[in-house]
């Protein structure tokens, strides 16, 4: 049994904790917040993540996830239908599993429950809340808390997010942000469906809204609005993406920065008046800069490994940031099953790096533009992907992102590392859904 310290109880950190618990290790998570007032907007749980979360026993209905039925492009000025991006069967056809929309708090709570519940395989994860980590030592490995206490472990995982201290320890430098190719700013806000239903001028937005994602882009002005439902279709999640001349690469992202709803209305003032009346129902909105960070050259040093935003911060254009962090966590547990000596742990981190870094780097680069503009970044993808596999259109991007089975690839890599490798029988609660063959 390996003693593991994970820094950060976000989505990637908790998924790592679940996977390492199921792999037979003792896991402790150090989180700087008290997790008493969790907030957040909605998040995609696409097939590449859903396939193993469901196999672990996560019930999307129990946690109020919404199954995607369709994704359509609408004209932002007339609200007229322009084209279908996905239909109800698209995610299953491409990825083998469903695409789900979840409130971030619901997903986070589900993961925390899976990590800490007293029943189930492995030893329940121990959570240390209100404990800020201020330093790492990869060679020990250990972390230093704000009060000066040093905590040692056999393996330390940095899941400390966008402004990661762990990544600086791994790299020896800070991965500084640069201006993105397209939009550089984002609004997020939520509107209860009931609020819209109470007004005759806004209830139209609820019509047939179940599992419907609506994209309203105006590429000439680098603006787009994205809307879909979460929490059993009772909440509409809105994302407004745009270019702001006042945003610079040296700004710090703050997901909790409030902005007046009137500013959102001003930014999209020429969009359809009926839609503006819907937006006006929001009680509050958040704004933060979208800053791009290029892929980093390595994800581990000695016995310190990186997961999630600490390894690959992503822009929201593909809706894959959370899913890639979930893949990281899953793979970390698989490669560490059976780990013993310090040398063995470090060698397995090298396997993890090889499995995850190229794939996540491709998604990171594609997320700088979105699935409909993949050709813009084709050259940037070549260090991480063979030229004949570089996606160039939305369907190819979906095949690359949705149509991936991290369980299969991680298990095969570990069999190459150790021919006797086998996952515990109770690592999964049910069969992992595979990926359909591309026709």
Automatic annotation (TrEMBL):
Coiled coil: none annotated. Residues 144-361 form the FAD-binding domain. It comes from the Eukaryota. The keyword Flavoprotein applies. Gene3D superfamilies: FAD/NAD(P)-binding domain. GO terms for molecular function: FAD binding; monooxygenase activity. Keywords: FAD, Flavoprotein, Monooxygenase, Oxidoreductase. Belongs to the paxM FAD-dependent monooxygenase family. This is FAD-binding domain-containing protein. It comes from Ophiocordyceps australis. The lineage of its organism: Eukaryota, Fungi, Dikarya, Ascomycota, Pezizomycotina.
């Amino acid at each position: 049994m390996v003693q593991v310290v994970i820094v950060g109880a976000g989505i990637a950190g908790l998924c790592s904790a679940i996977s390492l618990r199921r792999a037979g290790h003792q896991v402790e998570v150090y989180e700087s917040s008290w997790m008493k007032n969790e907030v957040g907007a909605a998040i995609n749980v696409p097939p590449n993540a859903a396939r193993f979360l469901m196999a672990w026993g996560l019930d999307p209905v129990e946690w109020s996830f919404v199954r995607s039925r369709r994704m359509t492009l609408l004209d932002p000025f007339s609200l007229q239908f322009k084209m279908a991006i996905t239909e109800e069967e698209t995610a299953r056809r491409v990825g083998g599993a469903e695409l789900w929309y979840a409130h971030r708090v619901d997903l986070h709570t589900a993961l925390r429950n899976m990590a800490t519940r007293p029943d189930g395989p492995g030893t329940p994860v121990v959570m240390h809340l209100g404990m800020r980590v201020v330093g790492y030592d990869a060679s020990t490995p250990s972390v230093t808390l704000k009060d000066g206490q040093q905590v040692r472990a056999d393996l330390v995982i940095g899941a400390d997010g966008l402004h990661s201290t762990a990544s600086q320890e791994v790299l020896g430098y800070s991965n500084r942000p640069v201006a993105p190719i397209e939009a550089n700013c984002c609004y997020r806000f939520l509107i209860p469906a009931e609020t819209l239903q109470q007004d005759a001028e806004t209830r139209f937005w609820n019509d047939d809204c179940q599992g419907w994602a609506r994209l309203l882009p105006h590429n000439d002005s680098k603006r787009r609005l994205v809307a879909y439902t979460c929490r059993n279709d009772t909440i509409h999640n809105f994302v407004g993406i745009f270019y702001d001349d006042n945003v610079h690469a040296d700004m710090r992202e703050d997901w909790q920065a409030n902005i007046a709803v009137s500013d959102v209305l001003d930014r999209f003032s020429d969009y359809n008046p009926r839609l503006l009346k819907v937006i006006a129902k929001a009680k509050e909105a958040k704004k933060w800069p979208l800053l791009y960070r290029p892929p980093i050259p390595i994800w581990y040093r000695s016995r310190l490994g990186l997961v999630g935003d600490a390894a690959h911060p992503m822009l929201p254009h593909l809706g894959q940031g959370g899913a890639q962090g979930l893949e990281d966590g899953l793979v970390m547990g698989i490669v560490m099953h059976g780990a013993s000596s310090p040398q063995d742990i470090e060698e397995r981190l090298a396997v993890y790096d090889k499995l995850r870094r190229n794939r996540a780097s491709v998604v990171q680069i594609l997320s700088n533009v979105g699935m409909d503009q993949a050709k813009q970044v084709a050259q940037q993808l070549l260090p991480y992907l063979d030229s004949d596999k570089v996606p160039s259109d939305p369907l190819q991007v979906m095949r690359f992102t949705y149509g991936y089975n991290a369980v299969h690839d991680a298990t095969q890599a570990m069999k190459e590392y150790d021919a006797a490798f086998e996952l515990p029988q109770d690592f999964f609660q049910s069969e992992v859904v595979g990926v359909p063959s591309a026709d």
